[in-house]
Amino acid sequence: METIIQIHQLSKRFPVGNGEFTALNEVNLTFDKGEFTGLVGPSGSGKTTLLNIIGSLDAPSSGEVTVLGQSIAHLTHAQSAQLRNRHLGFIFQTYNLFPVYTVFENVEFALLLQHLPAAERRKAVMEALEWVGLTDKAQSRPAQLSGGESQRVAIARAMVKKPAIVLADEPTANLDSKNSHHILQTMLRLNQELQTTFLFATHDEKVMSYLRRIISLEDGRVVKDERIAAHSFIKSNS
Amino acid sequence: MIRFLIKGILRDPNRSVLPVLVISIGVFLSVLFSAWFSGVFSDMIRLNANFSTGHLKVMTRAYAENAEQMPNDLALLETGSLVADLQRQFPQLDWTQRIRFGGLLDVADAEGNTRAQGMAAGYAVDLFSPGSREAERMNIMPAIVEGRLPAQPGEALISDDFARRFKVGLGDTVTLFGSTMDGGMSFANFAVAGTVRFGMPVLDRGAIIVDITDAQSALDMQDAAGEVLGFFKSDQYEEAAALEVKTAFNARFQNDDDEFAPLMQRLNDQNGLEEYLVLSKSMSGIMIFVFIFAMSIVLWNTGLLGGLRRYNEFGIRLAMGEEKKRLFRSLIIESVVIGLAGSVLGTALGLSAAYYLQETGLDFGSAVQGGSMMMPTVFRAHIGAQTFYIGFIPGLFSMVLGNALSGLGIYRRKTAELFKELSV
After folding, report:
1. Which residue of B lies nearest to A105 if distances are taken between CA atoms?
2. Bridge partners, B264 (sequence order)
3. Is B30 part of a structural domain of the chain?
4. B196 and B115 within one domain
5. Do the Cβ atoms of B52 and B200 come closer than 8 Å?
6. If you average pLDDT over every residue of chain B, what do you get?
7. pLDDT of residue B416
C-alpha cells in the first residue's frame, strides 16, 4: 500500500506557566492510502493534537511529519493552507455549516477556493450530495436540516474536492445511534469507493466498531496500534 | 467568490442592515451638510461680491482704510477714464462704478411738511447704461415688491419695509438728506418707482437705490465714485486670476505715496471674506473627517460583533484552506459592497433633502434681523457636482476602515485551536 502519512519521533510541547506540557511524546506512525483509522484515548491523550499536526493546522515541536510528501514543519502558512485546500478534508463534532448559505453553496465553498469553473463545481457538488443522499436538500438551508443531515452535508463538503485524507474529530458525538451508523456507513462507503484515508479522533464505541485500525494514545504516547480484519465490522454492522 | 459574498450579505441582515443603516445615515448627513454649507457660503460670498466687494474693487488708499464708513470725501476722481482704462487692461472683467452713501430719507405730507423720516443706506449703481448688468447682479427685478425699475433720472427704489413703515406709495417723492463729497449738505428729491425686499436685513431696513448719475449729481461727485467694482465675466470668482489682476494693477502705483492713489483689493481682502472662503473650502473636508472618524468607530464595533458572530465561519474557512489574507480580503470586498450600497442610499436621501432645501430654503429671518453683515434671511442648500460624490468618501472609507480594523483579528487566530473551537 502507498504510505501517505509518515510520523517520526513526533513531539509536541505547549508552554504552561513556567514549564511545558507534553501533548505528544516521540510518536512514530505511518498511514497508508485508504485507511479507516481511529485515534482513541482519554481526554488530554493527544488525539486532537495529532490530528492538528497531520492537518497542517499546527507544527511539531520536534520530529518529522510528512503528509503526501510534504514536511509539515517546513510549510509556510500559504503552503499549509494550500495543502488543506487541495488534499485534506475536515469533519467536526459540530457541523459548522454556513447558516446563510444553502446546502449546495455550503458544499460548493470548498471548490470556490480552488477557482473551479461553475459547471465543474455544480457537477462535483451534485455528485457529493448524491454520495450522502441529499440531492433533494440542495436548496435547503442548514436550519431546515436534522442533525444527521447536517453532518452528511459536512461530509459532502469535506469530500467534494476528493481529498486524499479526511480528518474527523468526534463526528458522531452529537448524533443519535441511528444517525451515527448512517454517517459511519456513508464514510465507510466513500473510503472504499474513493480510497480516501479517514482518520478519526473518537471516544465513541460505535465509531470504533467500524474502524479497521485503532491507535490508542495515552499521555501523548502510542500505547497500542491494532489492525482489525476488514470483514468483521461489515458483518457486525450490516 | 464575489457572488458568494454578495449572497451572504443579502441573506444575512446582521451583516448588511446595521452597517448599511449606519453608512447611509452618515452619508445622508455628509451630503446634506455639504450641500447646505456650500449653499450658505456661496450665497454669502456671492451676495457680498454683488452688493459690496465685487470680485475686485478699486478705491483710493484713504477710502480703503475707512471703507465701512463710506467716506465719499475720499472717493476716486476721474472714474470715467479709470473705468475705461480698466476695461482695456483687464477685459476679462466687467468694471462698474458704485457709490455707497448714508443719509436721511424725508417723507413729506400734502402740505410739504415732514411726515416721517428714517435713516437710509444708499446704493448708487449703473442702472441706465446700455448693457449694464448691475440690476441683474443685484437681483433687483426679483426683489421688487411693487412698482418697477427706475426708468429715468430722479427715480429711486426704496426698501419695502421703509415704504410700509412710513406709508410711502409709488410715485411719492422722498427727499434724501446727505452730504456732498466736499462735506456740504445735499438735498435731492426722488420719485419712488418701486419698493424692494432683498431678504437681507442690512438692506431691507432702509435702502434707497438710485442710478449712479443721480447720486453723482446729488452728492456733487461728477466723474467720481467711491468704488469701482470688477466682476469676472464668467460670474464665478476666480481667486488666482483675481490675484494676478490685483498684483498687476497695484504694481503701477506702488511707488506713489499719494493717499488718493488707487488701490485694488480682491474679494478675499474685504469684509473678512478670506475666512469664509477658507472655511467654505475646508468645511467639506472637516465634515468628511468627522463622519469618517465617527462612523469608523461605530463600524469597527459592528465589525467586531460580526466577527464574533461569524467566528465559526471564519474558523471553518481557515480549516478548509482559505488563506488568512484571502479571508481578510473577502471581508474588505464585503465592506466595499456594503459601503457602496450604504453610500448610494445615503447619497440619494441626502440629495433629496438637499434638493428640498435648495428649492425652499430655511428662513432664519428672525435670527439675522439685527445683523450688519450681508447675508440672506433664507438659507438654501446648493447641489453641485461635489454633492453627488462627496458621500462616497466617508461611506466607503469608514466601512472599509471599520472592517479592516475588526478583521485584523483573523491574523491573530491560531489554526491550532480550530479543532477545539469548532467542536464546541
Report:
1. B4
2. B58
3. yes
4. yes
5. no
6. 87
7. 72
